UniProtKB/TrEMBL annotation, chain B:
Origin species: Asticcacaulis biprosthecium C19
Family: Belongs to the sigma-70 factor family. ECF subfamily.
Lineage of origin: Bacteria, Pseudomonadati, Pseudomonadota, Alphaproteobacteria, Caulobacterales
GO biological process: DNA-templated transcription initiation
NCBIfam families in the record: sigma70-ECF
Residue ranges of the region described as Disordered: 171-191
Domain RNA polymerase sigma-70 region: 19-80
All residue ranges annotated as the RNA polymerase sigma factor 70 region 4 type domain in the record: 114-163
Record-given protein name: RNA polymerase sigma factor, sigma-70 family protein
Biased composition (Basic and acidic residues): 180-191
GO molecular function: DNA binding; sigma factor activity
CDD domains assigned: Sigma70_r4 (cd06171)
Length: 334, 191
């Protein structure tokens, strides 16, 4: 027998899913083949259990009684007799009726994040959205286009390649279009900030005569009232997207700017009371959800004074102390 | 070797699988590499496949998390270079403090609305096969006849549908609202 190359977990997953969906009872030949398969790589047994469990759990959906979720689904024009059928009839019949009624075509979705929440949202076309704190998007998938309306906040998109269905993000009047690429859009009062991490995107202001700008990986720009200026700054783009890992990249920013960043993510707000201290520059990366730890580290590094009152952390210079200008705390400097 | 008994399969489907997405997120919080997280989860299922009874497990979620945590620690200790920070991170993962909120509990169930949405997102042929098998409960032979395709293709499509649904369930943020009808007015969302 020739030695088997090591299977990837994906190969195992595929084989397991095929075994799981096979009609039971298995034929005697399949019984033998399944036993042989299971006695190979030890990972197979776990993968099969997972696939069978999923298959079984999906069967249970058929047996679920009519639920409220179910009853809100018919579109306003769904006829009342169908609703009656859904409430009283077998759920299998109900689902079949719903499929005929086009309810399976629901492709609109809204996603919202609250303060400090960062959410990864896989979209139906295979693209992924990473949604930053205090943001709201509306997704609309049609056969011709994939449209995302960034109502508020910031989102990074990893776009699944599909030339036939352009992927367009609207942020106010700003439009950002991509085909198989990764980029982020953040809404500011002055316009939409676009950062590109992979591929190329095209961005323009709707209803404006200026030509669209093209951005490639590492580029950033702001699409707004002013003419868009494209910067190539891969490090800055990378730092600006540290939130995807739950981090704030200090990256030479001033303490005031970093405090502002923190305040995007937390109910507890940091207030810098001394302008000189606010201009100090910092390096390293810190967790977005730890304003207390960050403040303590700053206090230690600059010999500053912390006052906590309810939901505010005040940072001020210590009286009679000379502020250190260097961050010594190893937690801050990587 | 045989596949797990029917009651274990059903228990895993209703009590373990719905927590997989949370477990994955929890392990990611310990800064483990993606491949490591996937391996750990797979190994946890292997461990569960060895069970012959589950009535002694009061909290399936806690059990699942604890099994994964132990596997993670074992793997790290076995590694040639021990990353102290990883051990520390995993040690600090508190199984009990990760109890789900009632909303998460609700979202974790295989709700009809959720299952429907997942099915609706499958590629066309796959969705058709999946609906006939799981919703209408038609035998494979019948589906093949109706759709004019071979039974092997029916089987492949069903398996693909299962994989896609499991995958999107497993990567889904459980706080995601079960896909509601989008509302038109601006203040329609959560406050």
């Amino acid at each position: 027998m020739t030695p088997m190359p090591v299977e990837t977990s994906e190969e195992i997953e595929i084989a397991a899913s095929l075994w799981a969906v096979k009609e039971r009872p298995l034929s005697p030949e399949d019984e033998v083949a399944l036993r042989a398969w299971l006695s190979g790589d030890p990972r197979r047994r776990g993968a099969l259990l997972r696939a069978q469990a999923g298959w079984a759990a999906l069967s249970r959906a058929k047996a679920l009684g009519p639920s409220e979720d179910w009853q809100v689904r018919p579109k306003p024009r769904a006829n009342p007799s169908r609703r009656g059928l859904l409430a009283g009839g077998g759920i299998a019949a109900g689902l079949a009726a719903a499929a005929l009624g086009g309810l399976f075509l629901l492709r609109k979705e809204e996603a919202v994040t609250t303060t400090g929440e960062i959410r990864r949202l896989p979209m139906s076309d295979g693209s992924i959205a990473a949604i930053n704190t205090e943001s709201r998007i509306r997704i609309e998938m049609t056969d011709a286009e994939r449209k995302v309306d960034l109502v508020q906040g910031e989102v990074w998109f990893k776009v699944a390649r599909n030339k036939a269905r352009p992927f367009v993000v609207a942020a106010g009047d700003a439009r950002i279009q991509a085909v198989g690429t990764a980029f982020s859009v953040r809404r500011h009062d002055s316009g939409a900030e676009v950062l590109v991490t992979e591929g190329t995107v095209k961005a323009w202001l709707e209803g404006d005569d200026r030509p669209a700008v093209w951005l490639k990986a590492g580029d950033r720009t702001v699409i707004g009232d002013r003419a868009a200026k494209v910067d190539h700054a891969p490090d800055a783009v990378d730092n600006a997207l540290a939130w995807r890992e739950g981090k704030i990249a200090l990256a030479g920013k001033t303490l005031s700017a970093v405090a502002e960043d923190y305040n995007r993510y937390n109910q507890v707000k940091i207030v810098i009371r001394d302008a000189g201290l606010g201009n100090e520059r910092l390096l390293g990366r810190f967790s977005t959800d730890d304003p207390e730890g960050f403040s303590d580290a700053v206090a230690q590094a600059f010999g500053a004074e912390i006052t906590r009152t309810g939901s505010v952390i005040y940072i001020d210079v210590k009286k009679n102390a000379t502020a250190a200008t260097e961050l010594r705390n190893p937690d801050i400097v990587p | 070797m045989e596949s797990a008994p029917e009651h274990i399969i059903r228990w895993v489907g209703s009590q373990i699988l719905p927590h997989e997405a949370d477990l994955r997120a929890w392990l990611h919080r310990a800064r483990l590499a993606r491949e490591d997280v996937e391996d750990i989860i797979q190994e946890a299922y292997c461990k569960i496949a060895e069970l012959s009874r589950v009535d002694h497990i009061a909290s399936p979620r806690g059990y699942f998390f604890t099994v994964a945590k132990n596997i993670a620690l074992m793997r790290i200790r076995r590694a040639r270079i021990v990353r102290i920070e990883s051990v520390d991170e995993i040690d600090r993962l508190d199984v009990m403090s990760d109890a789900p909120s009632p909303e998460q509990e609700a979202a974790a169930r295989f709700e009809l609305a959720r299952v429907m949405r997942l099915i609706s997102e499958l590629p066309a042929r796959c969705r058709k096969v999946f609906e006939m098998r799981k919703i209408q409960g038609l035998p494979q032979k019948e589906i093949a006849r109706v759709m004019g395709i071979s039974e092997t293709i029916v089987e492949n499509e069903a398996a693909k549908g299962l994989r896609l649904i499991l995958r999107s369930m497993a990567s889904q943020d459980l706080t995601t609202q079960p896909n509601k009808e989008p509302k038109r007015d601006a203040d329609a969302g959560r406050n």
